[in-house]
Design brief:
35% of the residues lie in helices and 21% in strands. It is built from 9 helices and 10 strands. A 6-stranded mixed sheet has the order 6-7-8-3-9-10, with helices on both faces. A 4-stranded antiparallel sheet has the order 2-1-4-5, covered by helices on one side.
Length: 278
């Protein structure tokens, strides 16, 4: 893969912070909707730390607040109490070094812009020359395997290819942290597996830290270095499951490991127990 040649790279940004400090820290985070007696608490006392370059998956029962948590981490939603730190700095709005990939790629892409223009769009506010932007867009499209589709409109691409565009756009912004909110939920099984491997490769190539929300337990166990299991509403951290498989991971051999089934069973048991709590 081609390395960055414009301004500071993702790894340059990561190295500015202390190497031993976490990329993302969540401390006693809680979120409620509504006022006073009528308030509904969705998140309660969430505490978790994510190391640099780590891939952490978040799972839990439906309606447990996984997307709410991700929005609080991204600065798109203000917590009721608690704190989020990105590279040691408190989050009080969307941080420059963080990007988000949403589930609905069809709504996140601009339909009147071609693929290359969609990837370039967030770079327009940066102090970069047109040539630098073009080079960076080319690098990101190459990274997700879409070089030959740069001149097409999103409607001319399959769902999986559109989500690749969204991932390329997020990475073009050169974040140190990438948040992904069920990005493959609406894709078929084969496309989903292909994109899971793409994201693992991108993490390795760019050193980006990834927090990945999913309903799919197999996906979480396959992708994650750790799996954070949320309890029922109001959500707390029920358990953090360590995942240690040989690398690189493979859709066939990794999922055939006895350890894969054991970890999958452990996570499913925790989620089942959480459902029974509410």
């Amino acid at each position: 893969m081609t390395s960055f040649t414009t301004e500071s790279s993702i790894m340059d940004t990561v190295q500015e912070a202390a190497p031993s400090s976490p990329a993302l820290e969540v401390s006693r985070l809680a979120k409620s909707y509504g006022k006073r007696e009528a308030a509904k608490q969705v998140l309660a006392d969430i505490t978790v730390s994510v190391a640099r370059g780590e891939f952490v998956c978040v799972v839990g029962p439906s309606g447990a607040g996984k997307t709410t948590l991700l929005r609080c981490l991204s600065g798109l939603l203000e917590p009721t109490t608690g704190e989020v730190l990105v590279n040691g700095h408190a989050v009080d709005g969307p941080p420059d070094e963080l990007a988000v990939v949403f589930q609905d790629y069809s709504r996140s892409l601009l339909p009147w812009m071609k693929v290359a223009a969609n990837v370039e769009f967030p770079l327009l506010e940066k102090k970069m020359s047109k040539a630098e932007r073009k080079a960076l867009v080319g690098q990101m499209l190459e990274a997700v395997g879409l070089t030959q589709h740069a001149g097409k409109y999103p409607r001319e691409l399959s769902g999986g290819m559109q989500q690749r565009v969204a991932i390329a756009r997020a990475l073009a912004y050169r974040p140190t942290i990438l948040l992904m909110d069920e990005p493959f939920a609406s894709l078929d099984a084969q496309t989903r597996a292909e994109l899971e491997d793409v994201v693992l490769q991108l993490r390795d190539d760019f050193g980006v830290t990834i927090v990945f929300v999913t309903h799919d337990i197999d996906e979480a166990v396959y992708l994650g270095d750790r799996v954070v299991v949320l309890s029922g509403t109001p959500a707390t951290v029920s358990e953090i499951v360590e995942v240690c498989f040989p690398t690189p991971r493979d859709q066939v051999t990794t999922k055939a490991l006895p350890e894969f089934g054991a970890i999958r069973g452990e996570v499913l048991t925790r989620i089942r127990d959480a459902k029974q709590q509410y």
